[in-house]
Each structure stands twice: as structure tokens, then as C-alpha cells.
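LOG
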Amino acid sequence: MKELMKNFRAPGAEFRGAPFWAWNAKLDKAELIRQIHIFKEMGLGGFFMHSRVGLNTVYLGKEWFECIKACVNEAKKLGMQAHLYDEDRWPSGAAGSLVTRDDRYKYRYCSVNIYSRAADALKEENGTPLAWFSAKVSGSVKDKNLVVKDPVRLKSPADFKFGRGRKLIRFAVFLAENDSWFNGATYLDSLNPEAVQKFVEVTHDIYFREVGKEFGKTVPSIFTDEPNFWTWGKHGISLPWTDKLPEIFRKKYNLDVLDYLPELFFTSVRKYSSVRVKYYNLLTELFCTAFSGTIGKWCGAHNIQMTGHVLLEDRLAQALYVGAAMRFYEYMQMPGIDLLTEHWRIFNTAKQCTSMAHQFGRKRRLSETYGCTGWDFPFAGHKALGDWQYALGINFRCQHLAWYSAGAEAKRDYPASISYQSSWHDKYHVVEDYFGRLGAVMSAGEEMCDLLVIHPIETAWLKADLNDIAAALKKEEKHFIEVTDTLLSQKLDFDFGDEEIMSRYGKVKDGKVIINKAAYRAVLVPRIATIRSTTLALLKKFAEQGGTVVYVDAPPAFLDGEPSKEPAKAFAKFRKASLSGSVKLLEKVTRRVSVMGPQGRQIGPVLARLADAGKAYSLFLCNYGAEFKTATMQNDCLVRDRKLKFPEARVEVIVPQRGKVYELDPLNGTVSEVKAAYRKDRYVFDTAFEELGSHLYLITAEDPGKLLNAPAAPALKAARKLPASGWNFELNEPNVLVLDHADWTVDGKARGKNEFFLKLDDDLRGLLDKPARGGSMVQPWLREQVPAKKTVNLELTYHIRIKDVPSADCRLAVEHPELYQFELNGKKLKAEVDGWWCDIIMQCIKVPAKLLKKGENLLVLRSKYHENLPGLESLFLLGEFGVSAGETVTALPQTLAVGDWCAQGLRHYAGNVTYSRELEIPAKGAQLEFGDWRGVLLGVRIDDGKESVLPWPPYRVMLPGGKHRIALTVYGSRRNAMGPFYCKTAWPSWTGPYQFKLSEVKNRQLVPCGLLTEPVLKAVK
């Protein structure tokens, strides 16, 4: 208990976040060390050293490891953790092409070709034929309605006889095509243990040689990212393959898999196929043992944790990519997941991971989180996404991501950058202190979870249709989500059970189902089409010992993938119910927590996690802020729109009596006693949930240390709005005019007018017969730096409209100013560097005010352009000026009014704005409450006092009585300077490289910023 409270009050590095640190440029040790110190100041516990697009230091080379060692040494000095990452970009396995240049280790797949004539088939030279069939064929791959019926295997294509609607089908194995994403090679044959072993030799063994002395200490883990056996499904109608698969299949099942290829590919041959189930089961076994098993065992032997996540784990369609995600976690010391965007309510993903972690005693569970959320994602979003994941058993955040550099393509690599490039980075310690404290408590003890839910993945195998797997599994997917939503909203915590894992680790003992280290008092069988004979036997034995088994709607019609009446016979002794009806049956034996509203019903959006930490129970409750709607599982509302509050809530915790109830506040580290009663078998107390609010409780007889005796909230008078206009304001950095369109000429010939720079850059590279830049390009560290074959004289002309000429000199932020000659209104600009803006790559040159004029100004850049240059990027004019809606430079306003600051001259402003004025506060004091506002977080300062940071709801603070200067800071973001600008909406559901290249609208889409409605004062009565 003392250790738990010590960690809560002063959480160590292991409980704090560790972002992906995107190594995406030419690395410099001094700069790396500088950024590590920034991470420390931000409250982060460490970082994952992650090669990403733009890396220009040879991956796994001498200089790379010099940088790795420098970072490990600096982390050690600062008490931080330096985590490893096992790949150049992702998915893990190719070692940046160092492994898969060898054909023996390349990814391979089985694909199908259909011919009307044998002669055409015999001309086919690509791929290695596996088997030939004659079959009736209709439909097409393109229309997702390909139908194959009545297949007959042929000894050779020469045996094919045309007629009666029959066609010749060729199944062949192909090596994946070389791809720039894999640096001119391919992905790994992840089903082949020899290929994975080679990956380990090239990557893990070298890391151990270089920094192995710090494994398990300063270097606690190595991240594997999105391994899979069907990379992005990019080969049409195809299935994963490895050379030894037919041999292994025959040994395991006594079947020739080649005889069954048509029914593996086409549900029209056999809608529900036991061979299909066997095939996916074997793929999963090969993948998990070859990849996860090889690496996990290596990590165990070398005192380092294997962490990370698999590809596309969120839906039942995971069958095509990883088989069954849960089985992969068996070998991981710290299993993990990936939460992309703020819209994905992927409770199932978290539960798959944390269920296996519970069953195998893995205390730490990782989430790669906040990816694709965009520059303007608020601190409230960081809390909200983290909270619900922690409520489902995750306890370590790997933030996506922190850039080493924002240079060139890197600045479009899924912002925001959770580092010095963001104007709020010096306040991020507030977020990390919160999750550090929460993580310290949530990592202690074992979840108290009595309900097991059979995972439906094998039904997905049975029904997998390559024409359109999403459509084939639509009903199953919906039910999969509904089961989780229903149980969690009813506070019936549960674990998933993977049937193959259960076949090896499952047993019945003392009236409980045991899976390895976890025990359950009830089992729910959702709607599944097939069940394993081993699972059926386990459930029968459990029921015979008095265990509760509930099934939804109907028993499975298949046993081990074969039609069978055995499940129905066995299920006759179990309890049948609808999904909603199952709650009443299950809660009798599994309910541990209730959170009820005034009407006595469970408050649906509140999630709960109860754990036994030895001498204390811990309970975490969080308000998701919106109802769980199955249809929006991957398209949920923005965090800012999750407004539900619950002012009255009664909490019941059904546990043996163990002392008093305390509330721990992770935001400020305080502890207070809760007024609670123990009645019969449970603790009962009242609370309330603010918008996105959460509560962390301890129930213990031990002394939790110093208690906060918080005074009762004062009674308040009616709200009084503060003035809507006349606010003095201060900017913490210069205002911005974005220059992202230019006229261009090549060798004196006009090529385009007012063209978006990314299209311009693509067109320019096209003139040089070179591929366009992008996130998928071959990494700079591997490109052959041969002399350019062609150099052109490039001239770019930017039009700057000025209504009010700035009185002070301005600056122009530009990447690599040394590559250009600058001219403004016919006068040469010196390319002398005068500081930087946003990122050190964006260097500034002075723009004298005397060179600017009212009306149109022409800024000309000239360069000798060739293929080896980093490419064109936006320019940013910085200074003390305003920018109107017409992208015209104006004077800054004298004061600001309530409302979007974009409409008040700060159209592209990318920093923080402090609003201030003198206020007479009533003598007894008053509560300041913010209404609608947009930004990342808020700060409030009274006179010259310490700033009160308001990172998330409730956005209110008490003010002392008297006359004071009040300063309200809205911390902004880079969104309105960096984009993406030209999507149909200002808030695309996903923010990544693709969104930045879109040109769906002509005018820039900006997001509103600032105080949008008047703050109010509520005087103390």
C-alpha cells in the first residue's frame, strides 16, 4: 500500500507516456539530446526511437547506433526510459529491406487466375502454379460478386475442356512485388520461422550487441508494429501462403490443402467450410509461433519486453490479416493495441488485449494512441481517449507521435507532433502527471472479473468471403460490438476467451472456469455459428459443477466447422436468453460494480474497472460522454461533442469489507475520504460525473497518507456574462500568412498559375521523370545519391496582398533557404538566417518592412532544382500584422471580441492568445466558468500570480474578491497554419499524408479558435 501511494503521489517514468519519437531526417546527437530534455520537461517517462519517413541516417548503421547509444545514456542520466522499435517504418519484419532483399524471406501469397482457354493459361509466366481446376464461373472480382461452382481438379491445364459455362482456374503462388514502401523490397514471409529468425538476427541481435547492457533497465521494451500475414490485402482475390504450408497442413489435418483451394477462396463453392476453418487456424498458429513466438521468446531470454500491436485487430475481419489477434499476445510480455483517431470506439480491441493480459498475468498493457487526430486535438481528447482505455485495462500510453523534424514530407506524417513543435508542449506535463498517477494505481493488482465471453473469431473463419469480407461478416460484426457495448454499459466486466487458447489452458476447478491465471464464475456464449469440441466439453463440465452458462438466441449449428447437432444437445442444459435478457442472468453471479442514476438504472456511458491490489481495492470510473451506438463504432462523435453529464450517481461496490473509501485525484495528486456505507455485501456512496469526468477510488484499511479536507462547494449566485468585446490580447509568437500557392516557370517557360505546392512539386518531379514524393517513397538513407541526371531553373512567384503595410520588419519561414535566391518586389532579399519558427528546419530570413507595399507584392524564389533536393514546401510570412478572410495582410486589431479569432485578423495564427482585462470581483469571490471555446487547453492568471491550467472539463476556477487583472489564455495549435486545408470538411475523420494532398475545395478550411462565447462569473452568495 505504501508503495502504491508513493507511486501515485510521485509517479516514476514507467507509469508515464512514451511517444513514438519519429526519427525522420539526418540525425544529430546534440539535437537528439536537446529533444530528450524537452520530453523530460513535458513530463514524459521516455520515448520509442522509431525510424519514419524521411530518415537520412543509415538504418541500423554505425551512426544510427551512435545515436541510439547517446539517447540511452541521456535517458539513463535523466531517469527516463529509452524504448526500441524494431523496423524502418512499418509493418515490422522486413528490417527496412535488409531482410527481404533475399527471395527466401519475401512475403508470398496464393492468387487465382481464370481463363476461357487452356492456351491462354499456358502463356502465363508469372507465379508458381499450385493447382488447376475446371469450374462454372460468373460475376467478377471488380463487382465483388465472383461466383465459382462445381470445381473439378485437373492434373494439368491440357485436361481442360471448354463448354457448358466452364472456365479454367489456376491457383499459383507469387512473391510479392518490390515496393517503395519496403525500400524496394517486400514485406516478410511472417509464416516462416526461418524468415522471422533472420529478422531477429538483423535487428534484435544487433540491438542487444549495442545496448543490451541496459535491457530491462533503461531499455525496457522493443515495439513490433502491425505484423501480419496479408499485408493490406493489396493483391485482390488472394490468400496468405508460405512454401511449407501444404506439407504442414497434411501433417496436421491429414488433408491435401490444394484439393480444397476453391472452397478456401469462394464461399459459393461451400458457404460454410470446415477446411476454411482449419486453414485460418493453421495460418494463425504459424504466424503466432513464427513471429510472436520467435520474438517473444528472444525477448524473454534477453530481459526485454516485447510490446506493440498487430495489423487491423479491431474487427472480425482480422481473420484475413492475423487470424486471431488474441493468440498473438500469448508471447508478448507487454501486449498492446492501436487506437487511431478520436472516432474509433474500439472497446473490443482493448478487451481482446487486456483479456489475454489478465489470463497470462501481464501487468503492463500498451496502447499506441492519438494517431491521426490532427493538430487541434485538445487535452480533453488526450484525457478522454486515455480514460476509457484505462477503464478497460490498458495502463501505458505510447503517444502517436513526436517528430524529430517537421522537414519536408515529415510534417504530414499524422500530426500533431507531441513535442516542441506544438505551441502547448510546455503544458503537457499536466497530462502526463495525470496519467502517471492513474497508471501507477491501475498497474497494481489484478482485475476482478468473473465473466468469460467466448470470442467469435472462428465464426469469422467459417464465413470468410474474399469477395467482400466486411459484407459477409456484417451481422456477426454488429453482434460482436453489441455484446461488448451491452456488458460494459451494464458494468458487467468481462474477458474474452479465445477457443484455441482455452483448448490448451482451460479447465474447470472448484466450480469455476480457469484459463491459465484467470478464473470465471459465468460464461456467455454470444451468437456464434461454430464452436470447438474442446470448448463444448469445457462448458458441459462447468455446467455440471453448477456453473452459469448463458447463450444468446440459439446454439451453434457447427462443431469444429462441421454441421452437428451436438452443440444443441449440450446447450439444452445451458440458459438461453436474448442479449439484454442475458444481463439479468449473468449479474446474479458476476456483478461487482453498479453506477446508477436517480431512476435506479445503470448509467450507460460510465465505464468501470475494479481491481484487487492486495491490501486495497482500486476502482476507476470514467464518463465516456456519449451513448454507445453500435453503428458508430469507428465513426463516433468528436470528443468535444461528448457532452453528457450525470449530476447524481450512486456507486455500489460488491466486495468484502476492507476499510474506508478514498478518492484519489490524478490531476493534482490529492487524496480525500469518501462518505460511504457498507451494507450487507457492498460499499455504497454517491458521486457525480462532469462532462468527460472520471473518479479513482481506493478501498483500504491502510493509511493512505495525507488527506485533503476539501471545503464544501460554495453556493453561487446567477451567472453574469463578462463583456463580449474590448479584450486586450497578447500573442506569444508572430502572426502568420500561409503561402502555399505559386506561379511557376521552368527554364523560362510558364508551367502553371496559382498552383498548390504539393501538386506543383508532383508536376515538377514528373518533368524530371521521377516519381512524386510521398510517405511511401524509398527512404532517403537508402536512395542512391548519384549526381542528378537533370537540373532545371525553377522560378516560383507568390502573390502577397497588403492592405496595411506592417510597421515592423517581418520574417519568412522557409525550409532550406540556402537552396534559393529571394526577391521581393524586384529587390533582392538576403538569405541570412534569423532564427526559426515552429521547427528548427523552418528557418527564418528577414523581410524588411520598407520592401513591402500596399497592394500586390511579388515574392520570387529561384532555384536550380533536381531530383535529390528535398522538395517544395509552404512558406510562412511572420510578423506583427493581421490577415483578413481574403488572405490579405492588414493591421492587427486593437482588441479582441468574443468569437472566432480567425475572423479577427488571426486567420492562420498558430500560437497561444491571452485575453485580459480589469475586473471587479464580488467581495466574497466568484467562480469563473468558460462557455464555448476552441483550442487545446485554457489557462487563467490573476494579476501576476501562478497560472491555473484548465486542461479539460469542467472549465471553471474560483477567483478572489476585489479588483484584479484577469488573463485568460487559449492555447492554440498549428492547425490553421499547417492544415490540412483543402478537404471537404475542416475536421476529416482521419488526418494523415493523404488528407494534405486533397484538393476537394478551393478555399482553405480553417477551424475556429478562441473564446467563442462570453465567460461568466457566478458570485459566491
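LOG (cont.) second protein
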Amino acid sequence: MKKNIVLFLLFNSFFIGLVQAQIVPVTASSADIYQQLKKLNVLGSVLYIAAHPDDENNGLLPYLAKEKLYRTAYLSLTRGDGGQNLIGPEQGIELGMIRTHELMAARAIDGSEQYFTRAYEFGFSKSADEALRVWDREQVLADVVWMIRSLQPDIIIARFPPDARAGHGHHAASAIIANEAYAAAADSTKFTEQFKYGVKAWKAKRLLWNTFNFGRTNTISENQLKMEVGAYNPLLGKSYGELGGEARSMHKSQAEGRPRRRGEVFEYFVHVAGDSAKTDIMEDVNIGWSRLKQGREVTVVNPEGKESKVQLSTEADISQIQSTIQSIINQYDFKQPEKSVPELVKLYKQMYNKMPSGAWRSQKLKEVQEIIEYASGLFVEAFTQQETALKGDSVRVNFFVNKRSNVNASIRSMRFTGAEDTVIMQAMEKNRNYQYARTLVANKGPEYTQPYWLRQTKARDGMFVVDDQQDIGKAWSDPVYSAVFDIEVEGVLFQLQRPVMYKYVDAERGELYQPFIINPHVEIYMGSTVVLTNVTDEKGKNRADSMLHIVYRSNFSQQNVTTTLNIRQETIKPVFSREQRNFVKGQRQIINVPLSKVYNPAAAAQYLEATISIVPPGGRTLNFSDYFKSIRYNHIPTISYAFRDHVKILKEEIKVRGKKVGFIPGSGDMMPEALKQMGYEVKELNDADITDDNLTEFDAIVTGVRAYNLNEWLSSKYDVMMRYVERGGNLIVQYNRNQGGVSAPKIGPYPFQISSNRVTEEDAEVRFVIPDHSVLNFPNKISSVDFIDWVQERSTYQADQADSRYQSPLSMNDTGEKASTGSLITTAYGKGNFAYVSLVMFRQLPAGNPGAFKILANLIAMPKH
């Protein structure tokens, strides 16, 4: 029997987040297989570059991938970490992980691939200079060059122009980087350290800008290169506008749900670099097999499995490959795709032995192997019925295979990656399940699961640290544990690699797959990100909690474990040392530690970290300083990651007035936690709670960020809210977006508009326009010091065109822009007060900025009239 050495398949080819909100093994319909067969004859590729998740053109990508059948990829410079989250409380790196999976789900729909650089999305920026200053410009450039050299695209498309028309500093920066990378990727003297990883200098045919009409900014012109991309594909049963709408709607955290467009859709392009094009983006690019007709020495494997080098007779060999593909397409039977498998296996051998080495050889071998699997009706998976394990655990894993066709196939062997084969030698019958249980010893890799870009602390605000060059660009980490199935199909041995997944049945949602996770033995959490130590009321009583509440959670069960808990500030202080403790899996324990025991107010560092050390009987010492968190939404896989938890201690005095505050939730800000830290009794309010009688008990009511955007019922409560203010209450509204016509008539007592104006420079000067305003004086005196060390930005979605009865105590602006006074507006109304606050309190409070706490206390304490 003749054997060939074959290529491992990429993990994401078979397990990717789909619209069913789970990770599922991918199968293909007969029409899908036919589409993939046609793609074998296309050797063209496109790389699309922009700055963020949801920057991509969701109408264009499916057209390029599924109509033109190009290998199509989207490279987002960032993961969208600094954006806003409309579905939950996650911010920063957590939001970045959510948006990463949303992009992967969108790519699963439109047929493109997804990649990223190491850049961190630090929030809205008005200039490319700022973006490139906060990022490491050279590192981001190197990452884009790496992806160009790895993917070898014929055409590169930038989403944005390199100037103010881009509408965002990150957008413009992505265009600048795309232009620089286009040239640098082709320069063999640039980033030479990349060449040892198998890439080579690559020059794309051209760089284009995909122009746009975003309403306020229209960069489209009829003299630009124009393409119609809204065609209907009967094999898919959809138009590309419909696919684009479905893909766009996966950006759920950004509220980017879109309709399925039907009818003509035009895209426009402007030449940026390289050869110009007049009629088609691939003009003068050879996308057929003839592009490979070059004499080249390659390694082949003879029937005995020995390697040898031969000089290709490429004209005849490539023509033979092309002829075989066309024959398979011509004879394809939609009712019985399996009939094509013998010829597909023949094609695979031709490609393996005759194609010149390079990116297209790897890509086309991968494509053919996928088609063989689909046409053979092979279903292969490796799953466990437990979601998590600890390093060193033994885990039962089920290897499962079913051949749902009459193709000649047998299971030869199976194994975990890096382990010895388990020889099976089992011929497979049609539609029979073959399941084998094996024990996985989880003893390789890190102590616990962690996305690759979070394994190290960021060296600077704008960049993640990734040491392994071959990880750069990946959408997600490779699975730690995978299974390899050696399956012989029509006389040729193929290796099919699958990640070990957690598989279960949910009573409501049915069969689901999730990642298999390695947990730490113990997780430790400081109880809060910020601790206030000096919160005084009108009587001078300190409301601050004098205890530190440390939580640790066990992921294993064992008695008599030697345990030590240390707190580090500048020095290590033990809470307890070498105590014998019993651990019960799933159990949380709270250790209440007097803050005075472990906190030094005079120390330079005002952060505390905890470490728990355990020594199981007969085991080695294990140290844990991280908290392990899972993020769960139905539209994406479960996200698990560890973060080094610490608490920031604020010793500044925060003066407060009032006792009880009502909170109307918005989009997941941490306001309730901050209010509780300040000693307020906080009650969350819903639709039914907003009545005249119920509101009388509150000194103030605070709405969460975008509460009026997310809670439609709030508009109907306008009269009740205004009566609350009129009778002496203080209503504090955090920012809302100007979508959907939200404006003052349903928010404040007098008219004002919500603009898209913002101040993005977190160190922008803040001027006190009304220095004697109560918000700047009572009970806390506010000064410029209270605006030091703000994070990411000052203000967003500012008030504008406010009625003259509003007061605007603050003025600020970004460099080179006119001053704005819409970051905070207040007005007296009856006996109470109304405030619209576009200062980004939702970022500053969790970051432990004392000025934000003082401003919040002053807003709650606005005096009655």
C-alpha cells in the first residue's frame, strides 16, 4: 500500500465559533463541497487591513471568499479592547476577547480568515500620531509584514485613508501601517529575523483603499474602480449582502445587528501603491494554476516511504493537476459526493508529489484533504465530558469516528499529540459509530489555560507581549491537547487532528461544545479592585470598610494541605503560614484581614497582591496569585483566562452626604460597587420600581452608561423621574449615545442634545468655568489634581446645544480643537437637581481614581433648593 506524508489540518478549519453560539465540528453539504471543488482552481489571495473588530467590510469579504473564491483574510490591528460593551460589564482585555470571538464567528459565516497584531486598543483616538505613539509603531509594522509574508496576498486592501477622513486615529494609523508594510514586506533587508521561520520577502501586486460612504463622510466617486458585490449565489441560497448582514450581526457586543441586504451592492477602490488597476482588483494577476509553472527541485516520497529530491517537469505536472481538478468538477454527483473521493485521493497524491513547495502547495493540500473528509462523510472528534481539569489530572477522552458513505476507509491508529500510537486497524462500515476511550494525562504546557497574548504583562500600554514569533497573528491560542486520527481513505493514509473538546447537552440549547480548560489548583481574588480607607460623612464618621476580604476558591479536594497566604505591598506580610487546611473542590473561602495588619499608608506602592502557596501531602510547592475567570455568552464559546489580581488602596479622604442611592442599570459599568465602597446603600431599580412612592426613599438616582439606549421603558418614566427631581431628588445620568434620536426631552428637564463629541486625551487640561459650582466644592473641593492619572479618555458623547438654564462647570478639549463644555451639565429643577455626566466615570472608578470618587460624591450631594 502506498503512503504519503500528509499535512496536519489547522484547528480552526474544523472547530470554530458559529452562529449557533457553540463550537461545533464543521460538516459540509453537497453544494458546499462543489463550491470548494471550484475553489481548487483559484490561486488568488486578498488581505484586508483595518484597525478594529467591526471595521471590516462585511459586504465585500463574503464576495471575495465565496464568489471569487480567493483566499481572503482580515487583519485587525487590535482586538477592540478599548471599545464599549453593550451586552455586559466586561471592559479592556475581557472585551477584547469577546470581540475576538465575535470576529471569528463572522469569519465562519463569510468564509474568510481572521488575524491580529499585538496592538492594544486603548480607546478612541483623534490622531494617527497618538495611535502610533501609544502603540510600538515598529512592532505593529513588523506584525503586519509578518502576516503579508506568511499569507502572500496578491492584493492588499486598506479600509481607511491615512488622514482625518478615517474618522478615528486608529483607522488612519492602520492605513499608514498598511502602506509601510506593503513596501517593507518586499524588502529583504527589513525584519530579517522573520526569515528563519520560513517566510520570505513578498511583494503584493497592489495596495488599494476601499472607499466608503459613512453618511457624514463620503469618499466614493464614480471614477474609482467599481465592483458589484451583491450577487446571489444559488449554491448558498443567499446573496453576499445577506451573508454580510449575518456576519456583521455577530458583533453583538457593539450592537452591530444589520439587515440581510438584497439587490445590487457596489464597492469602490482607489489605488495606493503598486500596479494600478482599472476594471478589477485582480487585474493582471495570474490566479490560475499556470502561475506555478516554474522549474523547481522538491522533495517527494516514494512508495517505500523514502524521501528523494527530483526536478519538476512542471509544465506537464501542473497541467495534469489542473486537468484532474476539472475532471472531478465535471463528473461531480451532487447526490453522491463520495463518488469523487477516489479521484480526489489521486489529486492529493499528484499535488503532494508534483507541486512546487510554497504557500500554495500547503494551502491546496489542506483544501483537498478537507474536501476528501467532507465527501467521504467522515465525522471525527475527540471529546471529554468534563469541562475542566488540573495539570497532572487523568481525563477520560472519547475518540469518535463515523464514516457516512461507501468510501473505502479504515482507522489505522489514534493518539494524543506527542504520545505513542494506539493501533486499531479497524475497517469502517457505513454509518457505524466507532468510539474508543483513552486516558489523557494533562501534564504538558502551562499550569493553566491562558490566551497566548495574555501570558505576559503588557510592557507598555499599547502593546501585548508575545515571545513566540509563530503565535503572532493567530486569532486564538492553539489548544493545549489534541488528538490525531490516522485514517486510511482509498489506500492513502491521512492524519486528522482535532482539539480535545468538552461536549455536553443543554436542556434548552441541545448539544454543545466548549473548550477543554486547564484550571489552576487554587484561585485567589482580592474582593475588589479598589479599597477606600477614608470615607467620612457629615458627622465625621468613617464609613470605609476596615477589612480586606480575600477570597480563594479551590479546584481540587484534599485534606491536610500545608497552606500559606501572603500579602505583598513593598514587603511580604503573612496572613497565615504553613497551616494545615482542607480543600474542597468548588468551595470558596473568605479570609477577612484587618487592613491595618497588611497595609502601610507610607509606602510608595499603594497596591496589594495576594499569593497562596500549597504543598499537598507528598507533593511539590505550588504558588498561585491569579484569579481564573470565565466569560459566558450564548453567541460565542466560553472564554476562560487568568488575571493577576491586585487591589488599589485609596487613602485620600472622600467626603459623602446622603445614605441611599437608586441605580438603574445600563451597559455593565461598575458604578454600584463604587457606591457601596463609598458607604451608600444601593438598590438596583427596574421598570416596576420607578414609581412616585418608591423613589422618595433615595437621596439620589444614578443611571448606568447608556441606560436610556438600552432600556426602552425609561422614556415612559420621564414624568415620574422629573417629579422625583422636582420634589428634591438628585438625578445623575451617565452618558448615552445619540443613536435612535435620544435627546433631552426624555432625559432632562430642559432641552439639550447628545453629540458624538469627546475628549480622548486622558491628560487634557480641565478648566473650571464656574469655580464656585457646588459640584466642584461640596462636600469635596475639586482641583486639577483630581484629574491626574485618568485612564484612556476624559469624556464621551457630550451634551450639546443645552438650554440656557443648564450650567456647564467644566471646559476641556483635545490638542488643536476648540474648547467644549458638554462633559458635565447640571440644572436645578424644583427642589432637586439634574446632571448629565459624560465624564468617563465608568473607566475611572474601577481604575481607582480618587477624583472620580469625589466628583461622584459631590453630584449625589448637590444641595436642595
